[in-house]
Each structure stands twice: as C-alpha cells, then as structure tokens.
Amino acid sequence: MPSLFQIVTNTPLWVWPLMAFVVWIGALSLRPRIVPPWRLAILPLVGLALSLAGIAQSVQPGLAAAGWAVALLPAFPLGLALGRRHAARSLADGRIEIAGGWFMLAFGLSVFAARYALGVLIGVAPALKAEPLWIGLAGAVGGIVAGIGLGWLAGVILRARRAAMALVE
Fold it and tell me: For the whole prediction, is pTM greater than 0.85?
C-alpha cells in the first residue's frame, strides 16, 4: 500500500488546477450574487458528465449504469430538497438572484474527493476495475453525485421562479 506522500506525488499535475477551479467556483457561491442559470449549472453538469464518463469507461457499462440509476433515484429528491431550501428568485432579465451558501463548495469538493479516491483505488488495485461489486459501487457514486447536483439545480430554479411569481401577485 503506497503512502499518502506517494499518492500525492504520483497524482497527475492537471488534477491540482482542477481542484483550485472547484474551490474557486465554490468560494464564489459563498456570497449572494446574481447569475444566469447556466452558471449555476456548471458543477452539477460537470458531476453528471464525470459520472457518465465513468460509466462509458467501465469494463461493464451496463452494470455501472444500473448502479448509477439505483443511486440517482434517491439522490435526486435529496438534492431537490436542498435546492428548494436555498433562497433564490428569478429576475425579469432571466438571471437568478441567489443567496450565498456552502452547498456548491461542499458539493464540488465532494465530487473531486470521490473521483480522486476512485482514481487512487484503481491505481493501487487495478483488478478492481473488473470486479462486479466495484463496478456497481463506482457507478453508484456517480449516480449520487449526478442526482444531488441536478436535484439541487432543479430545486433552486423552482424556488427562484416561485419567489418571482409571489412578487408579481
């Protein structure tokens, strides 16, 4: 088993700027802001893309997709509930005024940590790539990430639209 130092030093260099980007996007979300909806969608869509890429790269994509779908089903409503709790409202120009919060920072770092841990485990024990249980679990991690991220995005957009409609009435 490699040491933590060996794991970090053998990590590809492109991983660290990616982590810095995730922290930067998350730190921006700590303060209230007015943004177009597509900007809110960046990390949830990255999480979705990474989870789908994990399925496509799997030795058994069908099994990985099954694990993904089973995990996505309970994760989406959880993300939706978290998003609906976040104060937001739609503006007349289509942008969304959203309160600051920790969700995007925690979500982005969770996605990064999960993908990093999966990569390290595959690097340390490459035989796991062919284990059915591992394939299903790796797919499930992606499903949780995609479900929570997309659910949060949907919840925030719904909350923003409802808040804007309440002001009109």
Answer: yes
pLDDT digits (tens), the chain, 169 positions: 788 888 889 899 999 999 999 999 899 999 999 999 999 998 899 889 989 999 999 999 999 999 999 999 999 999 999 999 989 999 889 999 999 999 999 999 998 998 899 889 988 999 988 999 999 999 999 999 999 999 999 999 999 988 878 766 6
Q: What distance, in Å, lies between the first and last C-alpha atoms of the chain?
A: 63
**Residue 10: enclosing H or E segment and its boundaries?**
none
Domain chopping of the chain, boundaries: 4-168
> How far apart are the C-alpha atoms of 48 and 52, rounded to whole Å?
6
